[in-house]
Design a protein that fits this description.
With 211 residues, the chain is α+β, with helices and mostly antiparallel strands. It is built from 9 helices and 4 strands; from the N terminus they run E-H-E-H-H-H-H-H-H-H-E-E-H.
């Protein structure tokens, strides 16, 4: 039988995670997959995989990234501020917040989407603790309690484990989806992921087109 789990490595400041998050969640639901969400330290992952922070990339790459964000925003009809007021932004605390929500059995997916929207739509600073608490409150959670939980050792340990696990299995960017050991990097690979899921679940694959 196909695996019923899918691993989801991401970062709370990634535009590509933002653009793909709801589509990925819907895909997992269609195939009855349980998402094992693994927010990670993307800078640490980059440090061992050859990735560079945005401002350190070649100008050509920065320009093309901007163009791709614009294209995907148009195609997906998802609003995306191409030059957000707070980016690059330290997202460790935001990752802790989402992990704390997961550990408390709260709607981590809704919170994840809200945090990502805060960066890429709403021009909010997710490195600011009060902002994070407000975002949690806006999504039906106790922001004060959830922010306090970001200091828990268990939350920090899970974040560290996610990061080390990502490095160990060869993850090098966000978002990365891992199904039965096979990695799919980036929201633009969701079609490939869906193709593989269709194969594994005995569903038709002749409707997929890859050019």
């Amino acid at each position: 039988m196909p695996d019923t789990f899918i691993d989801y490595y991401d970062a709370m400041s990634s535009p590509w995670t933002y653009l793909g998050h709801q589509r990925f969640e819907a895909l997992a639901q269609r195939y009855n997959l349980t998402i094992r969400h693994k927010p990670m330290d993307l800078l640490k992952v980059w440090s061992v995989s050859g990735g560079l922070p945005l401002k350190q990339r070649a100008q050509q790459r920065q320009v093309y990234r901007h163009l791709e964000l614009k294209r995907w925003s148009e195609i997906l009809k998802r609003p995306c501020n191409l030059e957000p007021a707070f980016h690059p932004v330290a997202d460790r605390r935001a990752c802790y917040l989402v992990i704390a929500a997961m550990q408390k059995g709260l709607d981590w997916s809704r919170l994840t989407n809200a945090v990502l929207r805060a960066v890429w739509v709403e021009d909010r600073n997710i490195a600011d603790h009060a902002t994070l608490a407000a975002i949690a409150n806006e999504n039906g959670m106790d922001g004060t309690a959830l922010l306090a939980a970001t200091e828990d050792d268990a939350v920090k340990a899970e974040y560290d484990r996610n990061t080390e696990e990502a490095i160990r299995i060869g993850v090098f960017g966000a978002p990365t989806y891992v199904y039965e050991g096979e990695q799919f990097w980036g929201q633009d690979r969701l079609l490939m992921l869906e193709y593989r899921l269709a194969q594994k679940h005995g569903r038709p694959t002749d409707g997929f087109y890859f050019g």
